[in-house]
Amino acid sequence: MINLKTVSGILIPMFLLSACSPQEITESESSQEIPTDAEISTDAEMPTNPSISMDEDMPTDAEIRAAERAPLPSKLSARASKLSGNVVNMNANQDGINGGNNGLNSGGSQLHGNVTGISTKETEKGVEVNMSSDVLFDFDKADLKPDATAVLQQAAAIINEQGTGKITITGHTDSKGEEDYNIKLSVARAQSVKDWLAKNGVTKDMEVEGKGESLPIADNENADGSDNPEGRAQNRRVEIIIAKQKSTQ
């Protein structure tokens, strides 16, 4: 019968062990590497990514159930409605822009923004631009005031946009003063307007005339014979008529 001894979990005959020194047996047994506690990791000790949060941005159970129940057409319809609303707003803005450039009426200053002292309307003769002489000139003068620039610039823009026919610039006064003097003053004021327009981008042919007090658009006096300052102010004006283009048919 052979005597056996267990060394490092292995059965070795005793006669072989007798040939080995005790030191060699000890070294053999100690050669096995035993892992330390630090080298043993469990699932709980697995490294995690600090940038990943399981709860962050995760939908709730209620949100998940609502999303599952919502039919696809409803989702698309909601998105389409939102886009449609944006388109409507864009169209509304565009209509507002176009509205500022179209349509001639008594408040025609809206063609290019609100400028005091000028209005535009469409008549049988064509487009009529009405400018207040009180804005353009000092009392009893025919030289343009520095403050007249904004009104004249707007008038020039309207002429360049609408001017397809004959352009006539006519001066008008109120009823104060001599008739002959008022006619001369109205002609001189119309000429000043024409000269400014010609120097500032209006290349179309323009004719000048003065009507003095003969064509009032308001009463110079009230019914009781008293003075009507508001009416006189309306009569002191320079009108630009942009004639309609005659049909070639």
UniProtKB/TrEMBL annotation:
Task: Outline the extent of the OmpA-like domain.
Answer: 124-246
**According to the UniProt entry, which residue ranges have a biased composition of type Low complexity?**
26-35
The reply to whether Membrane figures as a keyword in the UniProt entry is yes
**Cellular location of this protein?**
Cell outer membrane
Keyword list, A-Z: Cell outer membrane, Membrane
The domain of life is Bacteria
Question: What is one GO cellular-component annotation here?
Answer: cell outer membrane
Which InterPro entries does the record cross-reference, listed alphabetically?
Bact_OuterMem_StrucFunc, OMP_bac, OmpA-like, OmpA-like_sf
| Stored Pfam families | OmpA
Q: What is this protein called?
A: OmpA family protein
Chain intervals for the UniProt region annotation (Disordered) = 26-60, 205-237
Tell me if Membrane is a UniProt keyword of this record. yes
Organism per entry: Neisseria zalophi
Show the Gene3D superfamilies listed in the entry: OmpA-like domain
